[in-house]
Design brief:
Length: about 230
């Protein structure tokens, strides 16, 4: 009997020793903890490139961010404006704060302004998401909506050549043109892989934006640190 009990005790000891230890609790990844700081608008105001100027575009970013639970940050549209009268040009890169910026999934798309406008950024169809974390349709999808309004050059600065690249500084919905980028980094135009400066739109109306391969969407960035 004693031998039997001894054998059972040894067997239980071996069985316990062979069980893997439970994994140690780990902190969530920093990217998962990061607060929303960048998105593509899930919809535009609906009047083509007439966004109500830069103030109207900023207000649209703020409204969408609030609906997504990030309204406690100051949001700015990534849009440039051309000089007009005594008003100087406004560059998109100067409007969006210092970074870093994370998308709705917690992925850091850029560390700072220089990183954003370099080949090191992580902007792509998979990472350039809406405020709700949804992927925007791109080339090959129906409909193609990869044209994102920017009005800017590749370095994020405003045009100063006298031509209209901003649909009358985001107040026009008829004639004119808006510089756009490809959020999926593919397509046509002089710079098809550029996220912010691929080509100009064929016009400023909603129909023209859609006909070019867009839908009046634009980028929004949080211009301050998360609270």
């Amino acid at each position: 009997m004693k031998n039997t009990l001894l054998i059972l005790a040894l067997a239980m000891s071996v069985a316990c020793a062979s069980q893997p230890e439970p994994p140690e609790a780990t902190e969530p990844a920093m990217e998962e903890q990061a607060k929303l700081g960048f998105f593509i608008t899930s919809g535009g105001p609906g009047d083509g490139a007439n966004l109500g100027g830069l103030p109207g575009a900023d207000a649209h970013c703020q409204k969408l961010a609030e609906a997504a639970g990030a309204g406690d940050r100051t949001w700015r549209a990534y849009l440039s404006a051309s000089p007009f009268g005594d008003r100087p040009a406004v560059s998109a890169r100067d409007r969006i704060g210092a970074g870093p910026w994370h998308n709705a999934k917690g992925v850091q798309v850029a560390r700072d302004v220089a990183d954003l406008h370099s080949e090191n950024n992580r902007l792509s169809k998979e990472n350039s998401l809406t405020e709700q974390g949804e992927v925007v349709k791109g080339r090959g999808d129906t409909p193609n909506e990869h044209d994102i309004l920017t009005g800017t050059r590749e370095d994020g600065s405003a045009f100063n050549d006298g031509d209209d690249h901003t649909c009358r500084n985001w107040t026009g919905n008829g004639e004119g043109s808006a510089q756009v980028g490809h959020h999926d980094r593919i397509g046509g135009g002089p710079n098809p892989t550029s996220w912010n400066a691929s080509h100009g739109s064929r016009g400023c109306s909603q129909d023209n934006l859609q006909g070019t391969g867009g839908n009046g969407y634009f980028y929004c960035f949080a211009a301050d640190e998360p609270s």
